[in-house]
Amino acid sequence: MTKGKIDTMQELNATLPNKYEVAKELGIPLDQGHNEDLTTSQVGKIGGRIGGQKVKMMIEMAKEHMEENSIEEATMAKKE
What we know:
The protein has helices at about 10-15, 20-25, 40-80. It has about 80 residues and is an all-alpha fold.
């Protein structure tokens, strides 16, 4: 997980590992061109590593936004 607050999907995507680096770490020959020779299992290992982190970060973003909205709503309710 990265340090600091992430506000947008663009910021979130920028913090995720590069799919080519993940493939290299896993020993999967991912090319920048055609990869039709890769198995579903190989592709799943690459996407799973990246997607798993993305989902965790999206959940964290949602929690932070919900907390902020909750605080704002409470503040507004006190003013009324």
